Each structure stands twice: as structure tokens, then as C-alpha cells.
Amino acid sequence: MPLDFAAIDFETAGPSAASACSVGVVTVVDGRVADRTGWLIRPPAGHDVFSEWNIRIHGITPDRVVGALGWAEQLDDLLAAIGGLPVVAHNARFDMGVVRAACFASGVGTPPLDYFCSLRVARRTYALTSYRLPVAATAAGFEDFRHHDALADAEACAAIVLHAAERHGADSVDALLSTVGDRLTRLEPQAPQSRVPMAFA
Questions:
Q1: CA distances from 147 to 117, 172, 197 (A)
Q2: pLDDT, tens digit, for every residue of 79-100?
Q3: Fold annotation for 5-187
Q4: Which of 8, 23, 146, 161 has its Cβ near the most Cβ atoms within 10 Å?
Q5: In terms of pTM, does the model score above 0.90?
Q6: Three-state SS across 135-171?
Q7: What's the pLDDT score for residue 2?
Q8: Which ranges in the chain belong to alpha helices (H)?
């Protein structure tokens, strides 16, 4: 596949992974940013309490999502924005956990998504003291963005992948992942109302 992907980022209202309150999506086609979009989400009932800690982090307050559509109503828009591309996020395990948990809490099926993690790519590309998004983005030449704004974070994630691909001489997602010793992971589809399996160490 060419260097085509969709970088995403979620912000949550509280500690529940199901409490997505905003999303940012940046699509890259042939190694160039093709589209940027983002919106607010009304978290599912039972996961809609905004913690003071999270509000301090991203600045989104409950009144801002009152008029927003819920996860179930916006899922098709999210999938349309992704456009069937492989998905990347910085610490993708978190963001894929949001998709899985929000779908379960909203009573909708979990969509199948192929994804990879820009945090893992950054760790195998740069020699840094920290691989947090702002630090890795700075190493990629993407500076002074509003961290914890979902769209800005998605843009930073995309910048890391593009810079890493250039640095490794990779002209596709597969080539980049092969170079850094990684691969696409599959978020498996799950039917509505089915219980998410618990993971035990």
C-alpha cells in the first residue's frame, strides 16, 4: 500500500474509555495531507460525567457537548472520514480502546480497523528522552501545537509518521512498519451488545 493513512486522536470526558468527547482525523494520501476534520461528541449515557482532571487537560466542558451528536449517531461519519485507510494514533492502544468501549456502551457494532502506533514508530526512529506526543512531534519538525486538542494531536501524529517515513526512505505504510519492525494490528469487528472480553495478565 502507498503512504496512505488516517491519523486519529480522541479526548475523553473522564477515565472511562467509552467517554469520547471529541475526535480529530487527518487523512494522508500519497504522503500528503489530504483532509483534516474534527468534532465534538456527546459521551454515551453512564459515561458522560466530565472529570475536573480531564477538563483541565483538554478544556472541553459538559455544556460544549450538549448539542453534539452521540457516538452511535457519529460513527458513520468517523468511518467516512477514515475512508477505509489504515489508522494511526499516538499510543494507539488507548484510541482503539476508545472505539471498542464507546461502541459497546452505545450498543453499536465495533467496526474492523487496521491500525498502527506512531508512538512505536517514534521509539524506533528517534533517540529521545521522552516519546510523549509533543516531544516526538518536535523531533518530526511539528512544533507549537495545542496538545490535547484532538485535531491538533491528530496532525502531530500524522507529522511523525510522515517524517519517520522520509527518514527511513519508506514510500508506503507497509515499508515503514517493516523498517521499524512493526506491523498493522486489527481491531476485530464485534456485534452490538456483545461483551468485550476481559484481559487478564
A1: 18, 27, 32
A2: 999 999 999 999 999 999 999 9
A3: Nucleotidyltransferase; domain 5 (3.30.420)
A4: 8
A5: yes
A6: HHHHHCCCCCCCCCCHHHHHHHHHHHHHHHHHHHCCC
A7: 86
A8: 52-58, 62-65, 71-82, 92-106, 118-123, 133-139, 150-168, 173-179
